[in-house]
Amino acid sequence: MGWQSTFTLAKRAKGCHLVTDEVVAQIRPGLEGVKVGMLFLFIQHTSAALTVNENYDKDVRKDMDMALDNIVPETLKWRHVDEGPDDSVSHTKASLVGSSIYIPITDGHLNLGTWQGIYLTEFRNLAHSRRVVATILS
């Protein structure tokens, strides 16, 4: 049995943002009655990504953003800068982090670890809203 919905996350500027509660609020109808299943999340953008990481200490999100900035600096001689200096750098970071994640579902709840949460990693400096496709298979 399958369930699918596309929703939009709130606007956020560059950084790593914990969005677990926002995602769960959007997929709650699909979680109902699922004893054992999988949630697949896919972001429909090339300058932001999704990942699972530490959900407690906000410094982890700041550290991740800093590390990604050091791995893929905006100061490189990027050619594709049609939408500004953060254009290609954002696409590159999005490819490294990834456009999709999957999370097991157990008894109608996401089966995340104690310290795990869903992150939106936004790579554009200006705030953007982001579309996500959620698919639940049980």
Précis, in short:
Helix content is 27%, strand content 41%. The protein has helices spanning 20-31, 58-71, 87-97; strands spanning 2-12, 15-18, 36-43, 48-54, 100-106, 109-110, 116-122, 128-137.
How would you explain this protein's 3D organization?
Belongs to the UPF0047 family. InterPro entries: UPF0047_YjbQ-like (IPR001602), YjbQ-like_sf (IPR035917). This is Secondary thiamine-phosphate synthase enzyme. The chain is α+β, with helices and mostly antiparallel strands and 138 residues long. It has one domain (3-137): YjbQ-like (Jelly Rolls, Sandwich). It is 27% helix and 41% strand. It has 3 helices and 8 strands; from the N terminus they run E-E-H-E-E-H-H-E-E-E-E. The chain is elongated. The protein starts with a strand and ends with a strand.
User: What CATH architecture would you give?
Assistant: Sandwich
What is the CATH C level class, in words?
Answer: Mainly Beta
Number of E-state strands: 8
With strands numbered from the N-terminus, the spatial order across the biggest sheet is 1-8-3-5-6
Radius of gyration: 16 Å
Biggest pleated-sheet summary: 5 strands, antiparallel
CATH fold descriptor? Jelly Rolls
| Termini separation | 5 Å
- Could you list the spans in which at least 5 consecutive residues all have pLDDT below 50? none
Number of helices: 3
Order of helices and strands: EEHEEHHEEEE
Q: Which class of secondary structure composition applies to the elements?
A: alpha+beta
β-strand percent reads 35-45%
CATH superfamily: YjbQ-like
Shape call: elongated
Protein name: Secondary thiamine-phosphate synthase enzyme
Family: Belongs to the UPF0047 family.
InterPro entries: UPF0047_YjbQ-like (IPR001602), YjbQ-like_sf (IPR035917)
Organism: Hebeloma cylindrosporum
